[in-house]
Every structure is written in structure tokens, then in C-alpha cells.
Amino acid sequence: GAVVSQHPSWVICKSGTSVKIECRSLDFQATTMFWYRQFPKQSLMLMATSNEGSKATYEQGVEKDKFLINHASLTLSTLTVTSAHPEDSSFYICSARDLEGPETQYFGPGTRLLVL
Amino acid sequence: GQNIDQPTEMTATEGAIVQINCTYQTSGFNGLFWYQQHAGEAPTFLSYNVLDGLEEKGRFSSFLSRSKGYSYLLLKELQMKDSASYLCAVRDRGNAGNMLTFGGGTRLMVKP
Q1: Does B102 sit within 8 Å of A102, measured CB to CB?
Q2: CA-to-CA distance for A29 and A23, rounded, in angstroms?
Q3: Quick one: CA dihedral B20, B103, B99, A1, positive or negative?
Q4: Residue A30 to residue A23: CA distance in whole angstroms
């Protein structure tokens, strides 16, 4: 099946710093990638839809200036959490849709962010 | 938007059968997905239904009734490793990029 990777797996940072998370589709091209956030014992909450070569579409309540998304190529999308605060601590998961494959989204392994 | 409801928690016994229900409301239904998520891990795809009926995949089956806005995931011959959260997700034609909207997830605990 299609593989999506995320880097890094774990991040611990001080409040006020910026953190970049990479999402890569390893064996397929994805014009659309999705970024989710998941708090403990809660379901996935879509943050934004990342489109290759264009601006991301953010969900209501998600600050686009705080969560910067760049989808520079068909295999890479990045999420930058700017000026991170403890309340941004969460599990961030990306997914990508395989254009040529079945109608599913393939999820990355997730990035756990802890802001001190 | 879409409303997706599923039970919060369920408990079942090893070797038994369990059915996890999901109801949804959406204007432009374009597919329903079930994902399994173990604690601390990303979701993994289980099944996809877009037409009414039952899709069977080994120990897991998923059913869809579009007229009722209803789906269920059936797990047979439960194993301890099936303890996980099961997420129901719906795709709507009106959503950009074929994005999915997830229900709150059902935490299944399998006991010996």
C-alpha cells in the first residue's frame, strides 16, 4: 500500500519557538494532503487541506498565520507551528490521497509535539 | 457540514462478535470509511463503502445504508489486538479535495 512518512516523530520545544513538521508521500504523488490534530482521547480534527502549488484551505477556527502550510511538491507538505505555546501540544497527523490508487487517504505515523 | 455519531466506548470478549454503529448526516454523500487507530499511532484504513450493502474483508465487515444514513463495522472472532479506537469518516462532494470528516471514534476494549 501507499506510504506516508512524517518527520520528526517527536518534538519537545520551549514556548515561543517554531516547529516544522514534514509530510511525505513516499511511493505516490499527492496533489492534496490533509493536516489533522488530535488531543488525547479525542478524534481527529481537520486543520487544513494542503494543495500542491496553491494556498492551503484552513478549517474554521484554525489560525493560518500560526499554522503555516506549504505544499511545494507533489510529495511534500510542511506544517510550521509558529511561536508554539503549551496549548499547541498535540498529536499532529498528515494524510495524503493517492491520485492513481483507490479512494482512500493514507495517514502518516504522526508527530507528537510537546511545548514546555 | 456533516454530523457523525458513534458510541464512545464498547467492551467485548475475546472470540466474540462486536458491531460498531455510525450514523451520519450529509448533503452530498460520497463515501464512508472506517479506520482503526491504536493508542499513540496514526489511523489505518479498514474499509470503504459508497454503495449500499455489506463489504467483507476477513474478520472485518462494513455495512452501509445511504437512505438511513447508517453504517456499521462488524468485527468477528475478536482478538486482544483489536482493542483500539474505530473511526467512522464521511466524504462529502461539497468538501474541497475530497476531505473526510471524522466521527468521535469508538474505543473498543477486548477482554479475555
Answers
A1: no
A2: 12
A3: negative
A4: 11
